[in-house]
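Example 3.2
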Amino acid sequence: MEDISEIRLYFERLLEPTGAKTLFAHNACVARVLFKKHKDITIVLLDIRLPNADGYTIAAEFKRLRPDLPIIAQTAYALQSKFNKSIERGCDDYVTKPIDSHLLIKKILSLIEKKSDNH
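Structure, written as tokens:
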């Protein structure tokens, strides 16, 4: 089992050079609350396996509320079917664990740039 504080610290350190402000939800209920409270969220990195809900369900909910918000799914499963399901449910991209930090940063920057080009 992954330690939640270690995961949070990993992502905070990974994203620190970008100047990004991070919010962390340890389950689906907290994710929903943070999502509704923070209208300035610019991208979501969403684990597909969450306590209290399926990450695909959360992705679909978030996209219904904010269709232009980029969502990157993360999972331990590198199957094409999981990638397809992620895209079908509203995710814009997909990364597998263990996460390649350089690839993740590249995907985040690409999606944010793409979003700004559309506005």
